[in-house]
Amino acid sequence: MTLVIHGGAGTIKRENMTPEREAAYRAGLNQALDSGYAVLAQGGKSLDAVIAAIKVMEDNPLFNAGKGAVFTNEGKNELDASIMDGSNLMAGAVAGVTTIKNPITAAHAVMTKSDHVMLIGAGAEKFAAEQGLEIVDPAYFFDSLRYKQWQRVQQKEAGKEAALIDPYSRDRKFGTVGAVALDRYGNIAAGTSTGGMTNKKYGRVGDAPIIGAGTYADNATCGVSATGWGEYFIRLAVAHDINALMRYAGLPLQQAADSVVMKKVPRLGGDGGIIALDRHGNISMTFNTTGMYRGYITKKGEGKTFIYQDEK
């Protein structure tokens, strides 16, 4: 039984991180690991472990998902999420939602309670309400630091680089959360949730809710959750490409992940990272940025968390 998680990749440097902030991030990651692993330890399914871990991060304003989501150009919080079951290739996703407290639960409901894979906007919200999921006023997602971040970007009308300044590390960062789990039954599941890109316009959607780009799971190969510059991850179908390299080229997990994240993505001009888990419990936490909030747990009480590039 193994669980691996991420809380976003980007230019995360020690010199920009206070000891207090670093401790808060590690505590948040550990809480997510403990919550997800508790499901696995009690004989639960990988899907439920992924949901449990991601909900913790959606509820933590440190992460750009759920409560800590960044602001769009219109000053709103628009959330995306997806989940996939490696045992049967079932998948569910929601995009551009503004009232669903935990978008990962809505993605799961789409997968299990509808005939569809992706629902967006008001339709997704109506469906979530019909399924009895927790609906909140959009004001619930307001976070003052994220709002100030957005105001600064608005004032500058800055380009892509400045639009990704993170208020917590005062540096460029891609905020997304994700989890991949392998349960005692040999089933792999993966999920991803995000608030997207600061100051995003025109109903922009990144890779997080796109099956095959930000999320993919197949018991025969691996489960993947991505974080990064979404447009590039969509164009390369990053999550599925890692799976395909394992399935068709016979590459081991780490080699497949390195081929995509360390070579293909930078070649196009994108950056970011992934977490992945194969059916043997091998873990990959591969990223081409200076940091990625990440961690894994294989035994109760022995979760490990990492932030910077030089941590192994």
Overview of this structure, please?
This protein is of the alpha+beta class and about 300 residues long. It has eight helices and 14 strands. It has helices at about 20-40, 45-60, 105-115, 120-130, 145-155, 230-235, 240-250, 255-270; strands at about 1-10, 80-85, 90-95, 120, 165, 170-175, 175-180, 190-195, 215, 220-230, 270-280, 285, 290-295, 305-310. The strands form two sheets. Strands 1, 2, 3, 4, 5, 6, 7, 8, 13 and 14 form a ten-stranded mixed β-sheet that branches. A four-stranded antiparallel β-sheet has the order 9-10-11-12. It is globular. The two termini are about 20 Å apart. The relative contact order is 0.19. The model is unreliable at about 165-175 (pLDDT under 50).
Structural class category: alpha+beta
In total, how many beta strands? 14
**Rounded mean pLDDT score:** 91
Oligomer: single chain
Distance between the termini: 20 Å
Q: How would you sum up the major sheet?
A: 10 strands, mixed
Helix percent band:
25-40%
Poorly predicted runs of 5 or more residues = 167-173
The helix/strand series, from N terminus to C terminus, equals: EHHEEHEHHEEEEEEHHHEEEE
> Measured on Cα atoms, how large is the radius of gyration?
17 Å
List its traits.
single chain; 312 residues; alpha+beta; 10-stranded mixed β-sheet; 8 helices; 14 strands; 33% helix
Mind sketching the topology for me?
Blueprint: E1 2-10, H1 19-41, H2 46-58, E2 79-85, E3 90-97, H3 103-113, E4 118-120, H4 121-130, H5 144-156, E5 165-166, E6 171-174, E7 177-182, E8 188-194, E9 215-217, E10 222-228, H6 230-235, H7 238-249, H8 253-268, E11 272-278, E12 283-287, E13 291-297, E14 304-308
Helix pairs in contact: 1-2, 2-3, 7-8
